[in-house]
Amino acid sequence: MVRPVLLLAALLALAACGHKAADADAAKSAEATPPTPKQKTVFDDQLKALEKAKAVEKQMQADKEKADKAIEDAGG
Questions:
Q1: Per-residue pLDDT tens digits for 32-71
Q2: Would you list the domain boundaries of the chain?
Q3: Dihedral sign of CA atoms 56, 62, 68, 74 in order
Q4: Which of 4-18, 20-34, 52-66 has the highest mean pLDDT?
Q5: How far apart are CA 27 and CA 21, in angstroms?
Q6: DSSP assignment, residue 42?
Q7: φ/ψ (deg, to 5) at 16
């Protein structure tokens, strides 16, 4: 009965030691490898159109604020 308990304790101790070393190695290799370039997907055109629409919306909002300020400055 004592033998399996000692064997289990030894295995747990070895497993705990190996886990930290594996994490450190994985972290070092993750830092060393450059990020992979973004892969082209079927949604790229839609995402590009959405980004363009957001940019147009920002521009329109800025133009509206400018026109509102001009109206208010004119006394309206």
A1: 676 677 788 889 999 999 999 999 999 999 999 999 999 9
A2: 1-35, 38-76
A3: negative
A4: 52-66
A5: 10
A6: T
A7: -70, -35
